[in-house]
Structures are given as structure tokens and as C-alpha cells.
Amino acid sequence: MDGNSLVFDIDPEWIPPFQLDWIGLSSCEVGPSFPQWLKTQKSIRFLQMSNASISDSPESQ
Are 33 and 61 in contact (CB under 8 A)? Predict the structure, then answer.
């Protein structure tokens, strides 16, 4: 999606009804906090979040 904008306004309490295998969020403004919904994902084999504007870690919450 180079050069495009896509916005997801996700409720902080949302629990996805699915499990991801792969997700790439590089250069997406995901932060400032690590997304709670990602912590519910137990089957991710690939997670790319470089330059995602996150200023904390999954363990800090």
C-alpha cells in the first residue's frame, strides 16, 4: 500500500474472532502502544512491525 492511507479504528477491548498466521505492519502507525488485540493471536508465525510507531513493548502492559 505504498503511498496510500488506510485507517482501522479498533476498540482497545476488541478480541478478533480469528487467528492470524502472518501479518506485516511495517511503516504503519500502529502505536504508540503495542496493540492488545495482537496479544490474543497465538498462531502467528510471521510478524513484521518495523517503523510501526510503537514506544512500548508487549510485556509492558
Answer: yes
* Interval 9-50: pLDDT, tens: 889 899 999 999 999 988 888 888 888 999 999 999 999 988
Place of cell 500500500: 1
pLDDT, position 60 = 60
Q: Residue 49 CB: number of other CB atoms within 10 A?
A: 18
- Cα 27 from chain centroid? 11
Say which amino acid occupies 42: K
Q: Kindly state the cell numbers that stand for 12.
A: 482497545
